[in-house]
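Hi R.,

Here are the chain sequences for the assembly we discussed:
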Amino acid sequence: MVMPGPLRVADPDAIRAVLRGVADPEIPTVSIVDLGMVEDITVTEAGIAVELLPTFVGCPAQQVIRGSVIAALAPFGRPVSAEFTFRVPWTSDRITVQGRERLAATGFAPPAEPADVRCPYCGSERLAMDSAFGPTQCRSLFYCRDCRQPFEAFKPV
Amino acid sequence: MTTRALDASTQAALADFLLSMADDEFVIGYSDSEWTGIAPILEEDVAISSIAQDELGHARALYELLAGLLDDGRDADAIAYDREPEAYRHAPLLDHGRGDWADTMARRFLYDTADTARLGAIGGGWPPLAELVAKIRREERYHVMHVTLWAERLARAGGDARARFVAALEALAPDAPSVLAAPEGEAALLEAGILVRPMAATVDEWRADVARILGPLGISLALGSGAAPRPTRTTASADFRWLWGEFTSVRRSEVGATW
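And here is the predicted structure of the full complex:
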């Protein structure tokens, strides 16, 4: 994680770079930037305002993520506000290419329609969807008939 | 988030509509969460719990919109939890107890299809609601897929499964149109573009959806006519009072605490 010094200039690119070190606690290997949750960063005399998009309306991680964003940006030495909005709906195609690669590398299939899901371990398309609903709101349960591994896939929304 | 100013009667109609929708999602969410840990199979335990979590999330977002609109000092939690049972405005369809799995799936089927039709009738007249609805619809799609699979599974299983599911549908059918009862001040909501069509038209659309899914399963339901008198949304059954006691118990145990 990049630790900015107190004199670091608070420009949106620098802020975005720091936010690459903030993760959703339910998906710790992918940053909120790569998940496409950071919609807007505004820097004014009043401070830094970050606009975030929840992946699901009822995602219980929202308050934790808000707190992590505020803590991560504290070294810029300006007031930080981090608010969730529905102004733009988060959709699974907001996940970046790098984010999709990181998901697959950690055993989560990136979002795709059920017929297009591939096993993140062996790449097989011989899969069974056990349930559209997984251990968190954003994931479904699959089973790979080739490498016989159960895995979770992001829901396309 | 910019909002065009609403006149007093439109604002009152919107508040009533938001409260009804939020209470529907809140009550079915809590009701379904009663299955957590005891659903028929493990995958279904996860699924119904996830769906319940979605519904409570939708309720929370709707209560937050309402809190902002009313601006009377109550936050979303205060609106959700600090009312007596008689003040909840959920539809009579959701006033029944959890029942068995067939009852729960029949209720979900009737509610999810009606809720889908209702969400489709909401226009862009008040942007905060339109934005939230756009997001909610992407999630509700999964609820409809889930319950449609269960309807097919139970109906095609024959025997006890089918008999119980059909009996549950028939028992709940008289209350099902209550989800789409015309809200107080429907005319003002239509005028403001918050609704794009009257609920009477939405009921017709929903009835056609239900028939499209249940018809091939050999089930025909009498869902009441659009001309039926408007059902009230102020019943509070013994089942609901029990559920209310459960979902308010933590809040009431230490008034004013932040959990």
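Residues 12-92 of chain A form a domain with the GMP Synthetase; Chain A, domain 3 fold (CATH 3.30.300.130). The mean pLDDT of chain A is 91.

Let me know if anything looks off.

Best,
T.
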